[in-house]
């Protein structure tokens, strides 16, 4: 299984754009086509957290009767947990305070 497949299989991340995924992976020193293995677990989990932050900061989508809303509270909690469990508790704390960097957009200070 590739890193890309692993990330896209995570709840809430299946519909992210390839560009956003690639940006997040490059920021963490990974490639989407690389094999997922135990050596990259921490970095992959941090990419998942980064992408969850990107999703919760995006707008809901509505077109005619089609509407897509994100479970932002649960996604924020998942991102905070992933940051804490993978060695970046300061990002979890910043996210809890409402200060965070948005992947693929103009960076904000943590």
Describe the structure.
There is one protein chain. The protein has 110 residues and is mainly alpha-helical. It has one domain. The protein is built from 5 helices and 2 strands. A two-stranded antiparallel ribbon has the order 1-2. Helix 4 packs antiparallel against helix 5. The radius of gyration is 14 Å and the shape is globular. The protein starts with a helix and ends in a 14-residue tail after the last helix.
Topology, pairings included?
Blueprint: H1 3-8, H2 18-27, H3 41-56, E1 61-63, E2 66-68, H4 72-85, H5 89-96
Antiparallel strand pairs: 1-2
Helix pairs in contact: 2-3, 3-4, 4-5
Give a nutshell description of this structure.
The protein contains 5 helices and 2 strands. With 110 residues, the protein is mostly helical. The chain has a two-stranded antiparallel sheet.
Helical fraction equals 40-55%
Parts with pLDDT < 50 across at least 5 consecutive residues: 105-110
Quantity of strands, as a count: 2
What portion of the residues fall into strands of 2 or more residues?
5-15%
What's the domain count? 1
Largest sheet: 2 strands, antiparallel
Q: Order of strands side by side in the largest beta sheet?
A: 1-2
SS class: mainly alpha
Features:
single chain; 110 residues; mainly alpha; two-stranded antiparallel ribbon; 5 helices; 2 strands; globular; disordered C terminus
């Amino acid at each position: 299984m590739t890193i890309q497949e692993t990330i896209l299989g995570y709840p809430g991340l299946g519909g992210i754009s390839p560009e956003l995924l690639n940006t997040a992976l490059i920021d963490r020193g990974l490639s989407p086509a690389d094999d997922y293995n135990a050596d990259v677990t921490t970095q992959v989990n941090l990419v998942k957290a980064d992408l969850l932050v990107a999703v919760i900061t995006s707008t809901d989508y509505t077109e005619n009767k089609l509407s897509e809303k994100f479970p932002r509270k649960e996604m924020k909690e998942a991102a905070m947990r992933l940051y804490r469990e993978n060695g970046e508790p300061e990002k979890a704390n910043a996210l809890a305070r409402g200060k965070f960097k948005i992947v693929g957009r103009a960076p904000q200070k943590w």
